[in-house]
Known about the structure:
Blueprint (H helix, E strand, L loop, with lengths): L1 E9 L6 E6 L4 E4 L2 E5 L1 H8 L3 H8 L6 H7 L8 E6 L9 E4 L11 H17 L4 H11 L16 H8 L18 E3 L11 E11 L2 E4 L1 E2 L2 E2 L1 E6 L5 E8 L1 H7 L7 H8 L1 H23 L2 H19 L3 E4 L6 H4 L2 H4 L4 H11 L11 E7 L2 E4 L3 E10 L1
Helix pairs in contact: 4-9, 9-10
Amino acid sequence: MATQRYRLEILSPLHIGSGQEYSPFDGVFQHGRWYLLDIEKVLARSHEDPTNLANAMMQPGFNWASWLHQRNIPPQEVAGRSIACPQNPGNTRIRACIRDPFGQPYIPGSTLKGAIRTAILEALVLELDEAERRRLVQNAVQRNEYGQLPRCERVGRNTLERHLLVGQHRGGNESNYDLLRALHVADSEPLAPEQVQIGLVWVYTLQGNHLMQKRVGNEEYKIFLEWLPAGGQTPMSITLDENLLQKHAQDLGFNKRQTVKLRGFIDACNERAASLIESEQGFYEEYGLNPIVRFYQALHDRQQQVQKQGGFLLNVGWGGGWETKTVTNPLTEGLDEEFEQIRRVHKLGRRDYVFPKTRRVAFRNNQPDAPLGWVALIPEGGTK
């Protein structure tokens, strides 16, 4: 096995969720920090009867800031954790990031491997002829034996992966014949907990020919997240099982094209990143969100530097959007009717309208600042 160590560099706010959300009852904002309260500490410090506290929390208008202030209790004395938070989340829930058992944030290897998998899948799709792509599109919109369509965010993935990433001589557990079993992506080393911030994300949407912050009535489509900000770095490693590829590829039904793409996963990742950068920069240029245009211009230059160092870019985690998570666009390149069929079956907007028309944008200092989820992996030292 050949193991390469990498330095993972975060290039834009990165949120990988734990599935947990914090409500206004879980914490309190004060002086640029959000405090996750420890109820046992609250009860011990306030000497409050638990039943009385529970009843108080059920009253309309209850908030921790007033309750603690009335009892002269600083939030930091009763918090289990505090997080930098430039803006008061108010009553908006906060999505928690993934942490290890010691409360330290990290980037799961499965998240990185999923993005690499998508890049390899796209590289294989781009080599298909038009007739083969048309056939796969038809399969992608077919219902299964239970009458269910594929989930829209994974349109075509199951069909494509089975066709392109699984060996041809399979029997029993299909995962045993998966091409990516030869690529092992480790979890990153943990980052310092104090690097986590709580940030604001707005959903932008096209209204006519304008890209606007999404609002419907009195509802604002904004989200608060625990994220790792740009600039963070952490080590991780990727191992390519050459023994499996050299000795067992034929037994597993992998063809030469598949093994070449797997060995060349760095090129596949960079080609996909370059395509996404060009596409997203063009979108934001057309609709005039200049801070994000400038981000992508800088990201293009950063990719050139990373490639010269033998590294690659990925978009991972939550908030990257349709194009970062699917390969529908390359699959339907030049197949306009087939693309419209996918849109019609999955109700992905009206024909002849831009799709996707929404983007999620991270804010800083109350201004749009960056898309989410861009990271660079830069090799360090030799392989083992």
